[in-house]
Amino acid sequence: MVVLNKIYTRTGDAGETALGNGTRVAKHSHRVNAYGTVDEVNATVGLARQVAQGDMDTMLSAIQNDLFDLGADLCTPDMEQDAEREYPPLRMVAAQVDRLEREIDAMNARLDPLRSFILPGGSALAAQMHMCRTVARRAERLVVELAAAEAVNPAAVKYLNRLSDWFFVAGRIANDDGRDDVLWVPGANR
C-alpha cells in the first residue's frame, strides 16, 4: 500500500530523484525521462476520459492503471535481481499487451480500411486520442533509447508499441467509426 502523507520532501532539490530500488539518479536520466513521459501519457488519457463514455471510458480506465504499472516497472532497474528481492517489483506482463491487441481487433472490425492517411482531429475525443497516440510514441522512443543502454522489460516496450496503435484505432472509433475522419489531401495547399 502507498501512503503519501507529505508531498514535498526536498530530496530532489539538487536535481536527483530516487528510483524504485532506492538508487539516486539525475532527474534528466534516460530512465526518469522514460517513466516521466509514461506519466505524461497517463495525464493525456485523463483528459480524454473527460469526453469518453461507456466502453471507451472503461478501456481508458484500464489503460491508466496499466500506465501506472508501466511506470512502476520502468522506475525499478536491475530486473535480473527480481527473484532475489523480498518484494518483487511490479512488471508488465504479456497479458496486458494481449488485452490491447484484442481491443484493437474488436474496434478495427467496425472500421472500413483506410485509403488515405488521416489528420489528427475530428471529434473532441478523436483529437484527444491522437494527442495520447503521439505522446505514447514519444514514450516508446524514450523507453527504446533506455533499453539500448540498460535492461528493460520487453513487455514494457511491446505495451507502448501496441498502445499507440490502440489510440489510433480508438481515434477512428471516436470519429463515428471512421466516417468523420479528416483525410490528408497531399499537396492540397500548393
UniProtKB/TrEMBL annotation:
Keywords: ATP-binding, Cobalamin biosynthesis, Cytoplasm, Nucleotide-binding, Transferase
Pfam families in the record: Cob_adeno_trans (PF01923)
GO CC annotation terms, alphabetical: cytoplasm
Pathway: Cofactor biosynthesis; adenosylcobalamin biosynthesis; adenosylcobalamin from cob(II)yrinate a,c-diamide: step 2/7
Leading EC class: transferase
Main location: cytoplasm
Compartments where located: Cytoplasm
Coiled-coil regions listed in the entry: none
Domain of life: Bacteria
The enzyme's E.C. designation: 2.5.1.17
Residue intervals of the Cobalamin adenosyltransferase-like domain: 7-173
Catalytic activity field: 2 cob(II)yrinate a,c diamide + reduced [electron-transfer flavoprotein] + 2 ATP = 2 adenosylcob(III)yrinate a,c-diamide + 2 triphosphate + oxidized [electron-transfer flavoprotein] + 3 H(+); 2 cob(II)alamin + reduced [electron-transfer flavoprotein] + 2 ATP = 2 adenosylcob(III)alamin + 2 triphosphate + oxidized [electron-transfer flavoprotein] + 3 H(+)
MF terms in GO: ATP binding; corrinoid adenosyltransferase activity
InterPro entries (alphabetical): CblAdoTrfase-like, CblAdoTrfase-like_sf, PduO-typ
One GO term of the biological process aspect: cobalamin biosynthetic process
PANTHER family (alphabetical): CORRINOID ADENOSYLTRANSFERASE, CORRINOID ADENOSYLTRANSFERASE MMAB
Family statement: Belongs to the Cob(I)alamin adenosyltransferase family.
NCBIfam families per the UniProt record, alphabetical: PduO_Nterm
Designated name of the protein: Corrinoid adenosyltransferase
